[in-house]
Amino acid sequence: MPKFAKRMDNLKASEIRELLALTADPSIISFAGGLPAAELFPIDKWIEAENKVMKENGAAALQYGPTDGYKRLREHCITRMNKVGVKNVEADDIQVLSGSQQGLDFMARIFIDPGDYIVVESPTYLGALNAFKAYEPKFLQVPLDEDGMVLEDLENALKNNDNVKFIYVISDFQNPSGKTWTMERRKGLIELANKYDVMILEDNPYGELRFEGEIQPSLRSLDTEDRVIFMGTFSKIFSPGIRVGWFNAAKEVLEKFNMVKQGADLQTSTTTQMILAQFLDDNDLEAHIDSIIEVYGKRKNIMVEAMKKYFPKEVTFTNPEGGLFLWVTLPEHLNARDIAVKAIEKKVAFVPGGAFYPDSPEENHFRLNYSCMSEEKIEEGIKRLGEVLTEAVK
Ligand code: PMP
C-alpha cells in the first residue's frame, strides 16, 4: 500500500468533480466551468507565429532557456501590467510561470509553514484554496460586500492572529462572485497591510476584461511599501491551453520564486514562450481583447436579462462589469447542491457555492459562467434553471 504524506489528508477529491465531468456531455448546457470562448482563439495567427519562430529561431525555441523566462515575453507582460496601472516594472522584475495556478502553489510553498494563516475573501477561488491546502495553512475568511472585502473584519482578523503570511485577493471581477473592489477599499487594504506588516497576493486574471467603465488601478499600482505580489496570466485574454502566466513582486520575493521555479519545472516551455512573444509582436492583442469583451459583455447581458425574466424574485444575483462569472444567492433555507441535482435532470450545470469557502461554507449560493455558451443556450439554460428555482422557492 502507498504510504502517503500526512499533508495529503487535507486534499480531498473535489465533490464537484463528478458534476464537472457530467458537463463534458454535449447535451448539457454548462455554466459550470470557466472556459474562454474557443471560437475566438486566433488559431491561424498562432500557426503563423509558430512557423516564423521555427524557421528563424527553431534551435533556440527547442532548447532549455532561463528560469525567469524569455525576455521578449517578459516585456509583453510589462505591457499588460501597464494596462492595469503598474508603471515602473522592468523585465527583470518579472518571473514567467506555467499558468498563474503555478504561482498559487509557489506562494504557499514559499510562505506557509503548517498552521500559519492566510486571509482569503469569502467566497474565493476554489483552485487557490486547493493549491494552498497542500501546505497546511489555516484560513481566515473575510466577507465580501458589494464594494470588496469588509475592512473592519479584515482588521479584526489581522489584529487577532499572529502569523498571517499573506492576504489573497482577486480585486477585479472575482471568481466566483464577479465582484470588483472600489478604490476606497483598495487603498484601505493597502493601509491595513502596511499597518500589520502583511504581504498581499493580487491574483489578476480578469482586470482587463471590463465591459463598461474604466479599468481599475491594480493593487500593485497602489502599493506603497513593495508588499503587493502581482500575478497575471494570458489564459483569459488569449488562451489557457498555452499555460503562461507571470509574477511580479519585491526582489527578495522574486528570488524565492526563482528558486522554487527551478525545483518545480526549471522553466516554462521555451517553445511556447517564444511563439507567444512572436504572436504578440506581430498581432494586435488589444483588438483581440476588445473582441473578447464584446462577446462576453453581450453574453453576460443576455444571462442577466434572462435571469430577470425567469428567476423567482426571492433569488438575487450580481451583475458584473467584466470577467467570466456571476454569483447567485438563494433564500437561506435552500441548498444550491440540491438545486444542482435538479438542474442536471434538466440538463443544466453550475457550481454550487459551498465549494468556494475553505470552512463554514454558505450553501445558498451558486456560480454561473457566461463566457463559453452561445446566446441561445444561455437563454434556454436560464429558462430551465428558472423552472427549477421557481419550484424550489414554493
Ligand atoms: N486565479 C483565478 C482567480 C482563476 O480564476 C484562475 C483560472 N480559472 C487561475 C488563477 C488560474 O489560471 P491559469 O493557471 O490558467 O493562469
TrEMBL record:
Superkingdom classification of source: Bacteria
Gene3D superfamilies named among the record's database cross-references: Aspartate Aminotransferase, domain 1, Type I PLP-dependent aspartate aminotransferase-like (Major domain)
Domain Aminotransferase class I/classII large: 40-385
Entry keyword Methyltransferase: no
Protein's name according to its UniProt entry: PLP-dependent aminotransferase family protein
Cofactor: pyridoxal 5'-phosphate
InterPro entries, alphabetized: Aminotransferase_I/II_large, Class-I_PLP-dep_aminotransf, PyrdxlP-dep_Trfase, PyrdxlP-dep_Trfase_major, PyrdxlP-dep_Trfase_small
UniProt-listed SUPFAM superfamilies: PLP-dependent transferases (SSF53383)
GO MF entry, a single one: transaminase activity
